[in-house]
Amino acid sequence: MNRMEGKLALITGASAGIGEACARRFAAEGADVALWARRAERLEALAEELTREHGVTVHRDRVDVRHREEVRSAAAALLDRAGPPHVLVNNAGLASGFDRVQDGDFEDWDRMIDTNVKGLLNVTRLLLPAMIAAGRGHVINIGSTAGHQVYPKGNVYSATKFAVTALTEAMNLDMAGTPLRVSSVDPGFVETEFSEVRFHGDRERAAGVYEGFQPLSGDDVADAVFYVANLPAHANVLRMILLPSAQRSVSVVDRR
Ligand SMILES: NC(=O)c1ccc[n+]([C@@H]2O[C@H](COP(=O)([O-])OP(=O)(O)OC[C@H]3O[C@@H](n4cnc5c(N)ncnc54)[C@H](OP(=O)(O)O)[C@@H]3O)[C@@H](O)[C@H]2O)c1
Prior knowledge:
The protein is of the alpha/beta class. The chain contains 8 helices and 7 strands; from the N terminus they run βαβαβαβαβαβαααβ. Helix 1 links the parallel strand 1 and strand 2 (32-37). Helix 1 (17-28) packs parallel to helix 2, helix 1 (17-28) packs across helix 8 (218-230) and helix 3 runs parallel beside helix 4 (106-134). The relative contact order is 0.15.
């Protein structure tokens, strides 16, 4: 049963990878979508395609989730145009760098903490009151297996995803007394632009991450997100950990 038709899903980080796949999936199921990311030209092309293919309404805004005032004005514009989203997918995020703490780069750390933790909070804080006032809504955070286990040189990225795990649980408690749901979908290895971003544009090194096994695709994760969002209002997945079959823990992978 499709409960998402005619609903509005806001997806942050919709210009690539998991977020883009979520946008395609929700639109294909007849949901209107709001797409946020920094690369406006990518959002424009995706919006054009989704409108043409599925006839849904697509809102798009160039938003850097780290910049609170940008989030504030995009949130106000969306609420004005379309009302509060039924589903908020807090997906925008990244790993930046791969070093031991003693060698770490402060700019990499700021980028991850400001995006993955403070960015998620900026978006949530500026939309949740309207969702609560509307008496419905579902926040789905994209966490990670790195939010449950650490791995060598994963230090600060893991810390941000452990924070997302904590925030999902805490926000779920904060929603007590409301009908709103809070969930997280926590994937293992997904082949997206993630590793290229982590290795600062080094495509060869990024490709090596996925060598010798079949990683998840953005579409696999979008399936999980859609499943979680589409459950009946009385059911909630608090946390879904989704791994490639070859991945046994955050750092153990059966490579051929
Ligand atoms: N790939 C994996 O193996 C994996 C595993 C577990 C969890 N995750 C999580 O999944 C989420 C999506 O990652 P992905 O794998 O799809 O990576 P991706 O292909 O690099 O996509 C990341 C998305 O986040 C957006 N983004 C980054 N910084 C942003 C900012 N400051 N403001 C707004 N948007 C921003 C990017 O858009 P712009 O650059 O256009 O802004 C892009 O759309 C992240 O939270 C990541 O931590 C990924």
